[in-house]
Amino acid sequence: MDLVAIQEILPHRYPFLLVDRILEVEAGRRAVGQKNVSGNEWYFSGHFPGRPVMPGVLIIEALAQVGAVALLSVPDFRGRVVLFGGMDGVRFRRQVIPGDVLRLETEIIKLKGRVGKGYGRAWVENELAAEGELLFAVGEKLPD
């Protein structure tokens, strides 16, 4: 999926849409996405001047957005928003800097009704950058 197709599924928009491409999707089960980390990103001007590092919380948000693509690809969930419920066991293994390409892999490991849990891993080349459990709830339909 390209950016236009992603925006048909996710309600996020710039500057908070943190996924550039979806490489794989199994509706309701898993998705793999990509984020091209550019030196022009809005957060680098303050995190940190002279030594830009992508904030870990935004890496986790990018993983959540990829998981949301998997969830919102289910016909019953189309047009809804996916909300964070929490994070467990999140670990940051490597800094993410301008020029890196993040491979974002999120699997839905539990879904009961509209609440569940996913597991996400963010990679730069073959190095694990971040991982952890993502708790979520599928919210109401968004207004048109």
Task: Please characterize this protein's 3D structure.
It comes from Neomoorella humiferrea. With 144 residues, this protein is α+β, with helices and mostly antiparallel strands. It has a single domain (3-141), classed as Thiol Ester Dehydrase, Chain A (Roll), CATH 3.10.129. It has helices at 3-9, 56-72; strands at 21-26, 30-36, 80-92, 101-112, 115-124, 127-141. The protein has a six-stranded antiparallel beta sheet, covered by helices on one side. It is globular, with a radius of gyration of 15 Å.
Provide tags for this entry.
six-stranded antiparallel β-sheet, globular, 144 residues, Thiol Ester Dehydrase, Chain A, 6 strands, alpha+beta
Describe this structure in a few short sentences.
This protein has 144 residues and is an alpha+beta fold. The chain is 17% helix and 44% strand.
Question: What's the SSE blueprint?
Answer:
Layout: H1 3-9, E1 21-26, E2 30-36, H2 56-72, E3 80-92, E4 101-112, E5 115-124, E6 127-141
Task: Provide the succession of SSEs.
Answer: HEEHEEEE
CATH-defined superfamily: Hotdog Thioesterase
The count of domains is 1
Separate helix tally: 2
Q: Within the CATH hierarchy, at the fold level, what is the topology? A: Thiol Ester Dehydrase, Chain A
How much is the radius of gyration in Å? Answer: 15 Å
**Ends distance:** 22 Å
Largest sheet descriptor: 6 strands, antiparallel
Second-tier CATH architecture: Roll
Given helix and strand content, the structural type is alpha+beta
Average pLDDT:
96
CATH class: Alpha Beta
Shape: globular
Strand order across the biggest sheet? 1-2-4-5-6-3
Relative helix content? 10-25%
Query: How much β-strand is present in the residues?
Result: 35-45%
The poorly predicted ranges are none
**Topology, number of strands:** 6
